[in-house]
């Protein structure tokens, strides 16, 4: 089942959800977003803070070729972790809902605006990642390696919201 996200509701104080459609069957689905506990964010914040304190001023002692291999492996790990987190932590149960044709069109129109914003954020994230990668390979700073991997992680999560089917769907509409 190839579901295309057409609209996401992210209003503060409300249950967040995403509306999907299946283009082949013309059925619509709704997935509520999982709510995370605040302790996870605080634990991550202090963990990252401790890591950054430990990495402050450190340089990678490797030459260029092993550094490129290490960087590539860490990018792969970051990519797979971002996919796991997105698929297992963002959406809850996906349920079929009955929407009229007009409601679907309204959701598509509203979602197109959100899609353009998400596309621009992904492009900016990728360009920032490339710039940080170049700076990292010039300085070999561990803290830059960490920031580059974090930015790549965020970029990969933003790509999860932009599957090829969604891009093609909005191009055809």
Automatic annotation (TrEMBL):
User: Is Membrane one of the keywords UniProt gives this record?
Assistant: yes
Q: Which domain of life is it from?
A: Bacteria
What residue intervals traverse the membrane? 39-58, 64-86, 119-138, 144-164
- Report keywords, A-Z: Membrane, Transmembrane, Transmembrane helix
Protein name per UniProt: Uncharacterized protein
Source species, please?
Answer: Gracilibacillus kekensis
């Amino acid at each position: 089942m190839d579901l295309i996200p057409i609209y996401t509701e992210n209003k503060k104080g409300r249950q967040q959800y995403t509306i999907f459609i299946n283009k082949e069957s013309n059925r619509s689905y709704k997935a509520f977003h999982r709510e995370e506990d605040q302790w996870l964010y605080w634990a991550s914040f202090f963990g990252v803070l401790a890591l950054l304190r430990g990495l402050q001023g450190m340089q990678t002692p490797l030459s260029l070729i092993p550094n490129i291999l290490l960087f590539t492996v860490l990018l792969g790990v970051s990519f797979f972790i971002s996919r796991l987190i997105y698929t297992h932590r963002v959406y809850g149960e996906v349920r079929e809902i009955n929407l009229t044709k007009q409601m679907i069109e309204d959701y598509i129109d509203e979602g197109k605006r959100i899609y353009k914003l998400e596309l621009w954020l992904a492009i900016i994230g990728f360009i920032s990642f490339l710039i940080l990668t170049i700076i990292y390979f010039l300085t070999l700073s561990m803290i830059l390696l960490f920031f580059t991997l974090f930015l790549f992680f965020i970029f990969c999560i933003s790509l999860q919201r932009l599957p090829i089917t969604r891009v093609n769907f909005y191009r055809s509409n």
